[in-house]
Specification:
Length: about 240
């Protein structure tokens, strides 16, 4: 059962509330999260990853609520997260940083080190395992972030703009990684819609902290009413100011 948001409210200090009464459940399988800048996409993923906690309401997965200390470690072990900003840990090699991420998720050092090799291979960074993370390019760091989300074999994987700054070859590699993630729930926040019909089973559209659409990709594309379904046209119909 995917992550649920139950009457959630959240806002940053000295800012307007992002969510006031958010209630919905993330779809199963592979989901793309769309919305304009400022719609609340990163905040939604931050709540789902337990980076943030709602000021009211709850976030839950398999009966676990990360606001409860007794649930937090178990919840985080089941949920993998890649934020937009991937930073190298000073002094660590690529493989050490991935292993460190696994250890932070509750894995033993031996298991985290072993699984780090598999995660690096999944994102085609194996040849750079011994390089210092601080020496990587921006695109390579994005792949380190993806490997960190994969290393502990989470059931739900949350990726915030994972293809930002990647060249066409790197985006194709991301596509390949996504298609191999069978048996997991995946939520990807992105502005790119060209692969939507091929990669994702469900679509969620946020605008102004409100869920404008949550359903199948096929039904989302059909909203455009075009003979050839258009993700851009369907999106424009749902999001204020985009038509």
């Amino acid at each position: 059962m995917p992550i649920s948001f139950i009457s959630c409210a959240f806002g940053y200090r000295r800012g307007s509330p992002v969510f006031t009464d958010l209630s919905f459940r993330l779809p199963e399988g592979r989901t793309v999260l769309l919305g304009p800048n400022g719609a609340g996409k990163s905040t939604l993923l931050g709540l789902a990853a337990s980076l943030h906690f709602p000021s009211a309401g709850a976030v839950a997965y398999k009966g676990l609520d990360p606001r409860r200390r007794r649930d937090r470690a178990s919840y985080r072990r089941l949920v993998g997260w890649m934020p937009q900003d991937i930073r190298p840990v000073p002094g660590l090699t690529v493989r050490e940083q991935i292993g460190y991420a696994g250890w932070l998720k509750g894995m033993s050092r031996r298991e985290a080190w072993r699984r780090s090799a598999d995660a690096l291979d999944a994102v085609a960074l194996g040849p750079l395992a011994g390089r210092r993370c601080g020496q990587l390019s921006g695109g390579q760091l994005r792949r380190v972030g993806l490997a960190q989300a994969l290393v502990h074999d989470a059931e739900v994987i949350l990726l915030d703009e994972p293809t930002a700054g990647l060249d066409p070859g790197q985006r194709e590699r991301f596509r390949q990684v996504v298609t191999r993630l069978g048996g997991r729930h995946l939520v990807v926040s992105t502005h790119q819609t060209e692969d939507l019909g091929d990669l994702y089973e469900s679509v969620v559209v946020l605008d102004g902290g409100t869920v404008k659409y949550a359903g199948s990709t096929a039904e989302f594309l059909a909203l455009s009413g075009d003979r050839v379904p258009s993700a851009e046209a369907s999106y424009a119909l749902l999001v204020a100011g985009e038509a």
